[in-house]
Amino acid sequence: LPPAEAEALVRALQGTELRDTGGQGWLRQHEYVEKLNMHGILSASAGQEQLLTELLVTHAKIPVLIGELISVEIWKQKVFPVVCRLEDFKPRSTFPIYVVLHHEASIINLLETVFFHKEICESAEDSILDLIDYCHRKLTLLAARSTGGQAVASVDLPSPSSMQELQKQAETMEFEISLKALSVLRFITDQVESLPLSALTRMLNTHNLPCLLVELVEHCPWSCWEAGKLKKFENGAWHVVPSEDHVKMTKLDGQVWLALLNLLLSPECQRKYRFDGFNKSQLLKLRVFLTDVLIDQLPNLLEMQRFLSHLAVTEPAPPKKDLVLEQVPVIWDHILKKNSGKWEAIAKHQVKNAFSPTEEELKHQARRWAQTYSLDMMEALAPDKPRCRVCGVEAAKRCSRCRNEWYCTRACQVQHWQKHKPACNLMA
Predict the structure, then answer these.
(1) Contacts of residue 404, Cβ cutoff 8 Å, sequence gap at least 6
(2) How many CA atoms lie within 13 A of 127 on its CB side?
(3) Which residue numbers delimit the MYND-type domain (predicted)?
(4) Which 3 state secondary structure label does DSSP give 239?
(5) Which sign does the torsion angle of CA 167, 173, 179, 184 carry?
(6) Contact 101, 80 (CB under 8 A)
């Protein structure tokens, strides 16, 4: 995005009411988030995300994004199941509902891209407590997963309805969102020195995040065995891991270990954390995982090894209770109180006004999404370079009429023309 357009989109971000989810105004907000999300990924890959970071801080939009994130999380928990149960709701297209489900993924992805920077973490102010609670809920879901299952352990129905298909997609997306939340939490723990006191107390004592992270190290929900082969989840997909890479640390493993390092080795955290019998026994489970191979990949873990050896033979002093007033997160409670008892009414309102578009409205929306997800943008985000349709080598040229097929040279394009011509005419 040009800087002026990026600034206009950031300035236009604003909170929406839960009841308006899926409506026209809400869809515009989702469009802005989606464009900023793609802009953030491209900028970060080029090492130029400073502009987006400055805009979000200057216009104080991080609390707005956190509010929207929690709003759509509550919608998924309270309203979406009601929509799925409505017997008389047979949507022509489930895409409007899918967009709402996808909104959470877009926001957490944008936050993951920018939370690497200290000033973003500080600009969250009091809403950082809500984000910590959000990450805790997602990590609890992650830890509760069956250790043997893959991302989704749902039963395959012979001919699922469109709503059942949507529920299945929501489950798959939930897994990926939880992994993004893990990264965001790790970036928050990078800034323990500049976090409000209440944030640290909430992470260490209210939610006991060190023990939750130990669970993730133990059960590692992003890896599983299937038909005798080890599979790991990376970059949005499950991959079979060659035997020589079985002990190689993935990015997700690294995020968990770095978060543990931040929470256990910071002097401020050690002063506030309760090293009682249970917590101590849980943390000492980490010693078995700290092999020489792992420490070679992340040398900082040598300090963790020393800390755990010391913890095993000492009784740490009880934490100092120096915080009398404690802040509490407000966004989740505010949305629940405001809409409590109205979930069915909200679902029926949204089915009537947002999720049952006419043919003309669907076409209009499709045109808008086609502009948002332009081919050039999607290709820039794609991990693999396009390949020549004829010989398979990396291609830099494409058919100028339909812009759908790629070629390495004009000779390959001419050779393929007779086969490609009917499809090209149709698309052009």
Answers:
(1) 398, 423, 424, 427
(2) 18
(3) 388-424
(4) strand
(5) negative
(6) yes
